[in-house]
Each structure stands twice: as C-alpha cells, then as structure tokens.
Amino acid sequence: xxxxxxxxxxxVTLMCQVLINVPNEVLYDTHMSNAQATAFARKMVALGYYxxxxxxxxxxxxxxxxxxxxxxxxxxxxxxxxxxxxxxAELMRDIANA
Length: 98
Known about the structure:
The structure is a single chain. The chain is mainly alpha-helical. 64% of the residues lie in helices and 0% in strands. The chain has helices spanning 2-9, 24-30, 34-53, 57-64, 68-77, 88-97. Helix 3 (34-53) packs antiparallel against helix 4. The chain is extended, with a radius of gyration of 19 Å. The model has no long low-confidence stretch (mean pLDDT 87).
C-alpha cells in the first residue's frame, strides 16, 4: 500500500512510445549512428505534429528532446513561422496589444 500512495503523490506522465524500423543501409548511406537517427526521427515527428496537428511548441519540444527555445530555432531553420496570423488586421491587433 505504501508504494501505491507514493505513486499517487507523484505526478505521473503517461507517454506513448513509437518504434520504427530503419534499414541499416539507410544509416550507412546517411552516415548516421543509431543515436543520430533517433534524434532525427524525434525532431521530424515533432515537426510533423506542429505543422499538421497544431500541437503546442512545448509538447513538440518535449517530443524532439529539445528545450522550447531550441525547438523554435529548429522551426526557423526549417522555414516554419511560429507566428501565424489569418490576415494583416489580426497581426496589427496583436501588435497593438503587445
């Protein structure tokens, strides 16, 4: 019972783990180690979630294994704008409220 109550007191974060198979030839051709391929895959999955599913920068940074600031830099390196406005009027309202 003691272990259960200790577990209940801790904040438990449940996560899904995804496994993908990358042929060894791809790692050979790209000169990537397993660690580099894992880091690459995490960043690309996070980028996809951000672009296609509107997942927050915070969650995507966590998926990518980066800080939020590092993930924002990564987005910029990939020409992804973190500021998205429907039109110029929305941009001007946001500037006025800053």
